[in-house]
Amino acid sequence: MSFYNTQSRHKTQWSVTFKSEMNLEEYFARIGYKGSTEKQDLETLTDIFQHHIRAVPFENLSIHCGEKITLELEQVYNKIVRRKRGGWCMENNQLLSWVLKSLGYDTSFLGAYVFNPHQNAYATLMTHLVVKVVIDGKAYVVDGGFGVSYQMWQPMELVSGKDQPQAPGVFRFTEKNGVWYLEKMRRKQYIPNQSFSNSDLLEKKECRKVYMFSLEPRTVEDFRFQCTYLQTSPDSLFTKKSICALQTTDGFRALIGWTLTETTYNYKENMDLVEFVTLEDEEVEKTLKEKFNITLERKLVPINVKGSYTI
């Protein structure tokens, strides 16, 4: 906080200015980033992005422990950076956009419609917020808020029909009549615990549609209704499942209800290792702390209604 005075012939007027409570150094400490921020290039963007997705979980636990998810940036910052929580797309990607914009990147928001594999259709409600970044005239999609195996590990160049191999698999954008589609091709899966081989959490198709979007710029205000709907509607995926997912250096781990999964990418040639464990109630809190570095302030009520979500 700083004070300054302005003199007039009749009185002294004091004004107060407040320094923003959000700062990049605190964010970088949260994600463990110690690299350079001098250049606004793809290499720096990728490095920051990968630190973020390996430190900040994709999670909706607030819904299942009596907290309200907000779109106010300062509250998102406080939740993720200070309380060391995670968030869903509207939180993770809004925070990432603020970081990148503060560093001098050219960023904007896009809105996507998520594909539902059980209905074999895209959602009719625009619920997914992503970030577009332009570097040296090239556009990239940066999405740190999808989680599990559909979480990209690198910014994706916004170009149609080009395979973009990453550690999680091969991603690809396809554009038709101004609409962009994201899909991902995965490897085969090795599941040691065969009792989970038919789990509804497992994606059966090797090529999976993820979401579709247009290039129309969006604002956070465009997601106000969706933010409330997703955390209150009985039809929402997020009220049916408690989800916490975190990317690792060689895969990802996820806690869906009481089911803990740990995936190792390319465990063998063209094969991912997917390990399942069912937790007891008393193990959930400990697992969140040990596997996801999350300590909740309120009691979590795990839930996992069958269907609508695959890892």
Automatic annotation (TrEMBL):
<comment type="similarity">
    <text>Belongs to the arylamine N-acetyltransferase family.</text>
</comment>
<dbReference type="InterPro" id="IPR001447">
    <property type="entry name" value="Arylamine_N-AcTrfase"/>
</dbReference>
<protein>
    <recommendedName>
        <fullName>arylamine N-acetyltransferase</fullName>
        <ecNumber>2.3.1.5</ecNumber>
    </recommendedName>
</protein>
<dbReference type="InterPro" id="IPR038765">
    <property type="entry name" value="Papain-like_cys_pep_sf"/>
</dbReference>
<keyword id="KW-0012">Acyltransferase</keyword>
<dbReference type="InterPro" id="IPR053710">
    <property type="entry name" value="Arylamine_NAT_domain_sf"/>
</dbReference>
<keyword id="KW-0808">Transferase</keyword>
<dbReference type="Pfam" id="PF00797">
    <property type="entry name" value="Acetyltransf_2"/>
</dbReference>
<dbReference type="GO" id="GO:0004060">
    <property type="term" value="F:arylamine N-acetyltransferase activity"/>
</dbReference>
